[in-house]
Specification:
The structure holds three protein chains of three kinds. By secondary structure, chain A is α+β, with helices and mostly antiparallel strands. Chain A has nine helices and eleven strands. Chain A is globular and about 50 Å long. Chain B has a domain of 27 residues. The longest helix of chain B is centred in the middle third of the chain and has 33 residues. Chain C has one domain: Formate dehydrogenase/DMSO reductase fold. In chain C, strand 1 and strand 2 form a beta hairpin. Classes of the chains: A alpha+beta, B mainly alpha, C mainly alpha.
Chain lengths: 271, 53, 416
C-alpha cells in the first residue's frame, strides 16, 4: 500500500515536471530548399489548391522567407529564414500574444510543454489571434480543405483535418509528442529521449539546420545552441519571448530579426 | 460561462466579469417582469389612470 | 386633415402629424430593397462559399467589417449618451431627441452584430464566445456588453412601438409603455454601465496587441489607454451622428422635427467632449511615439513606404478632429446650419477613420523587418454586406418615423 502510494506520488511528481520545447535554426546552414515546408504540409495534413501561388491565403505552418542584404555585387548576400510558430511564452505582465486575446479559449499555452495549442473545433474564426501575432504564423482556412483524387488515403491519421473558417498554426507536431509519450508510458518510462520527439521539419532538413528539443534540458542539444553569442530571436524587444532561436554569424541577418531594424535594416530586402 | 463548466477557473477576474454579466441580465429580467406585472395589475384593477406621461 | 386625401394607413400615424402617401412610402421602401438584395446575395455567398469571396487574407484578418463594426458602435453611442444626459443628468430638453437616438442606436448595434455574424469564419459557432468565454480577451468583453446593451436598446425601443396609435389603444400595452417609461432611468443607467465597458473594450481590442507596436498602448490596470480614448471619442461623436441623422430625416420629410435648442445642446456637449478627446489623443500619440521607439519601432517606420503616410495622422487629428471641434465649440459657428452639418460629418468621419486606423492600418504596418507591406482594399462583397445594414436601418427608420411617435415636437413645429 505504502509502495503504491509512493508510486502514485512519484507519478504525480512526474506530471508536474515541465518542459520547454523549442527550436534552434542555424541560418548559416539553411539552403532554402523548402524541405521543411513540404514535410510540414505532409505531416500536418495541410490543404493546398491547384494554384497555390497566393501566399496571402495559402496554408503554410512553416514558411521560409528569403531575405537579402540589398547590397550590390560583390557584397550581395542572401539568407533564408524558416519560420514556424514561435510558441511565445510571453514575459512580465504579457501573456502569449495570441492566447490572451482568443475570446473562446480556442488557443492555449501549455505550461507542461511550452507549446501553444489550437483547438480547431472550438475556434469560430474571429481571427483576432491572427491580428495579435506579429510573426504571421497563424493562417485562416479561407476554403474547405480539398486534396487531389486518392490523396486522402495518404493523410496523417494522427492529425485532424481542419474545416473552413477556422484558424490553424504550427503545433510543433504535438501529435508526435503524444505518440512518443504513449510509447514511453507503455515501456514504463516517464521521460522522453531527445530523439523520440522531433518535429517533421527538423527531421526533413537535409542540411541539419534545425535542432529541436527541450530548451531546459542540459542533455538536449538546443540547450547549448541557444546560448551561442550568435543566437537571436525574432522581435525580441517586443517581449513575446519566443521559443524559436536563430543562429547566424552574419551581423545583418541578426539585425534583420529586430523590429523594423532601424537604419541598418533598411538595406534588408524581402526577395 | 457557468461555474459548473469544466473549464471554469476560480479566479477574481472571472467572478467579477461573469458576476457583472449575470447582474445585468437579472436586472433586465426583473425590470421587464415588473413592467409586465404592473401593466397586468392595472388591467385587472383599473383604478389608477395614467394618461399623462 | 381631409379624410378623403389622407393616406390609406393614416390610422396608424401618430396623432396630429402628416405623412406622405402610402404609394410613395412603399416606392422608397422598394427602392431600398434593390441594394439590400445585392447585400443579401453577398451575405449568402459569405456563408455558403466561405470567406474566400472577400479580399481578406492572412495578413489582413481584419478588414472593412471590423472597422465598420467599431465605427457603427461609436456612432451609435449617441443612444446611451443622450439617454444618460436625459435620464441620469436629467436635461429635460433632450426628451425631444432621445427617442430618435434610441432608434438610431438600435440599428447601429443590430448592424454591428449582423456584420460580426458574417465576419466570423464559423457563424454557427458564434455562441462559443459566450459558452467558452475567455474573460481575459477584450473581444469577449465586447461581445457580452454589446449583446446586453442591444437588449437594453430593444427595451428602450419597446415603449415607442407600444405607443403606436393603434397598439396604444390596448390598455395592457398602454400600461406597459407607461411603466417602461417609469423604469427608463434604471434602464438608461444599465445602458451607461454596459456602453462604458464595450466602447472601452473595443478600444482595448487593438490596444492590447503588444505584438503590434502600432496599435499597442500601455494603460491603467488591464485597460490600455485606447480603452478610455474610445469611450471619449464615442461620446464625442455619437451626439453628432444623432444630429446628422436627424437633419437627414428632416431633409427627407421636408419639415423640422426637433427644435434648434435641442440640437444646440447636443452640439455644444459634443464639441466640448471632442476638444477633451483631442487633447488626450495628442498626449497619447506623443507618449506612443516614445513607447514604440523603445521596442525598436521609430515613428517613421509606421508611415513610410506605404500608402498610410503621415497624412493619415494629420487628417485624423487635424482635419477631422480639430476643425469640427472649433466649429462645435464656437457658438456662432454651430448656430450656422451648414457649418454644423459640416462639423458633424467631419467628426463622424474622423471617428470612423480612427477605427480604421486602429484595426486595418495596425495590420498593414509590417512588424518583422523582412515583412513587406501588403495592400488591402475591400471588394464588392464586403461593401455590399456592410451596406446591407445601412439599407435595413433606413427602412426601420422610415417605418419608425411613419408609425411611431418619435418626435414629440413635430406637432408643434408643423401644425396641420
Amino acid at each position: 500500500m505504502k509502495e503504491a502510494h509512493h508510486e502514485a506520488h512519484e507519478h504525480h511528481g512526474a506530471h508536474k515536471k515541465t518542459y520547454k520545447y523549442g527550436m534552434v535554426v542555424d541560418l548559416d546552414k539553411c539552403t532554402g530548399c523548402g524541405a521543411c515546408m513540404v514535410a510540414c504540409m505532409a505531416e500536418n495534413n495541410l490543404p493546398f489548391r491547384k494554384d497555390n501561388s497566393d501566399r496571402m491565403r495559402s496554408q503554410l505552418w512553416m514558411r521560409v522567407y528569403k531575405i537579402s542584404n540589398g547590397r550590390p555585387f560583390p557584397d550581395t548576400d542572401i539568407c533564408y529564414i524558416p519560420r514556424p510558430c514561435q510558441h511565445c511564452e510571453g514575459s512580465g505582465h504579457h501573456h502569449t500574444p495570441c492566447v490572451s486575446v482568443c475570446p473562446a479559449t480556442a488557443t492555449d499555452y501549455s505550461h507542461e510543454t511550452g507549446i501553444v495549442s489550437q483547438v480547431y473545433t472550438r475556434c469560430f474564426g474571429c481571427r483576432y489571434c491572427m491580428a495579435a501575432c506579429p510573426y504571421h504564423v497563424r493562417v485562416f482556412n479561407w476554403w474547405d480543405p480539398t486534396w487531389p483524387k486518392g490523396m486522402k488515403k495518404y493523410l496523417n491519421p494522427d492529425v485532424s483535418v481542419r474545416m473552413r473558417g477556422v484558424v490553424e498554426k504550427c503545433s510543433f507536431c504535438y501529435h508526435r509528442y503524444q505518440r512518443a509519450k504513449n510509447k514511453a508510458y507503455a515501456e514504463g518510462r516517464r521521460e522522453l529521449h531527445e530523439d523520440e520527439y522531433q518535429t517533421a521539419c527538423t527531421q526533413a532538413c537535409p542540411a541539419g539546420a534545425i535542432t529541436f528539443g527541450d530548451l531546459k534540458n542540459p542533455e538536449h542539444k538546443v540547450h547549448e545552441l541557444k546560448k551561442s553569442p550568435y543566437a537571436f530571436r525574432l522581435l525580441e524587444k517586443l517581449g513575446t519571448n519566443p521559443k524559436v532561436y536563430y543562429v547566424s554569424t552574419r551581423d545583418w541577418v541578426r539585425k534583420a530579426g529586430e523590429a523594423y531594424a532601424g537604419e541598418e535594416g533598411k538595406s534588408v530586402t524581402h526577395a | 460561462m457557468f461555474p459548473f463548466a469544466f473549464e471554469w477557473v476560480p479566479e477574481a477576474t472571472r467572478y467579477v466579469f461573469m458576476g457583472s454579466l449575470y447582474a445585468v441580465l437579472i436586472s433586465l429580467i426583473i425590470i421587464m417582469h415588473y413592467c409586465v406585472i404592473r401593466a397586468f395589475l392595472d388591467l385587472i384593477c383599473p383604478k389608477k389612470n395614467h394618461n399623462n406621461h | 386633415m381631409d379624410s378623403a386625401s389622407a393616406p390609406f394607413d393614416s390610422a396608424l400615424f401618430p396623432e396630429g402629424v402628416k405623412r406622405c402617401k402610402l404609394k410613395w412610402f412603399l416606392f422608397w421602401i422598394a427602392v431600398l430593397h434593390g441594394p439590400l438584395m445585392v447585400g443579401i446575395v453577398a451575405t449568402l455567398m459569405c456563408w455558403g462559399l466561405a470567406l474566400n469571396v472577400t479580399y481578406l487574407n492572412n495578413n489582413y484578418p481584419f478588414g472593412l467589417w471590423i472597422a465598420a463594426d467599431l465605427g457603427v458602435i461609436a456612432l451609435g453611442a449617441g443612444a446611451f449618451f443622450t439617454g444618460f444626459l436625459r435620464y441620469v443628468v436629467n436635461i429635460e430638453e433632450l426628451k425631444n431627441i432621445v427617442n430618435y437616438a434610441v432608434v438610431i442606436g438600435v440599428m447601429c448595434y443590430a448592424s454591428a452584430q449582423g456584420i460580426l455574424g458574417i465576419d466570423i469564419g464559423q457563424p454557427l459557432r458564434g455562441w462559443f464566445i459566450f459558452w467558452h468565454a475567455n474573460v481575459h480577451s477584450m473581444l469577449t468583453e465586447v461581445a457580452f456588453c454589446i449583446t446586453c446593451y442591444f437588449m437594453v436598446l430593444c427595451i428602450e425601443y419597446l415603449p415607442l412601438i407600444l405607443e403606436n396609435r393603434q397598439i396604444n389603444k390596448f390598455r395592457f400595452f398602454h400600461g406597459m409603455a407607461h411603466h417602461l417609461h417609469g423604469a427608463m432611468p434604471t434602464i438608461a443607467a444599465i445602458g451607461v454601465f454596459l456602453s462604458f465597458f464595450h466602447q472601452g473594450s473595443l478600444g482595448g481590442v487593438p490596444g492590447v496587441l503588444y505584438g503590434r507596436p502600432f496599435a499597442y498602448r500601455e494603460g491603467f490596470l488591464v485597460w490600455p489607454w485606447t480603452f478610455f480614448l474610445f469611450i471619449l471619442s464615442a461620446i464625442a461623436c455619437g451626439p453628432c451622428f444623432t444630429i446628422l441623422i436627424t437633419r437627414i430625416t428632416e431633409g427627407c420629410a421636408r419639415k423640422r422635427l426637433v427644435k434648434r435648442n435641442v440640437i444646440e445642446i447636443l452640439a455644444k456637449i459634443s464639441g466640448r467632449l471632442l476638444a477633451v478627446y483631442l487633447v488626450l489623443k495628442i498626449v497619447d500619440t506623443l507618449y506612443w511615439i516614445v513607447i514604440a521607439g523603445r521596442v525598436g519601432a521609430p515613428l517613421s517606420s509606421f508611415y513610410v513606404n506605404q500608402p498610410y503616410g503621415y497624412w493619415v495622422l494629420i487628417t485624423e487629428i487635424g482635419i477631422l478632429g480639430v476643425i469640427p471641434a472649433i466649429i462645435l465649440l464656437n457658438t456662432k459657428a454651430r448656430q450656422n446650419d451648414s457649418l454644423l452639418i459640416i462639423a458633424c460629418i467631419l467628426n463622424c468621419t474622423g471617428i470612423f477613420m480612427n477605427r480604421w486606423i486602429m484595426t486595418v492600418q495596425s495590420l498593414a504596418v509590417p512588424v518583422m523587418s523582412f515583412d513587406k507591406f501588403v495592400s488591402y482594399h475591400p471588394n464588392w462583397v464586403e461593401y455590399a454586406t456592410t451596406f446591407v445594414f445601412v439599407w435595413v436601418s433606413a427602412i426601420v427608420i422610415m417605418l419608425s418615423y411613419r408609425y411611431l411617435p418619435i418626435f414629440p415636437q413635430e406637432k408643434e413645429l408643423n401644425p396641420l
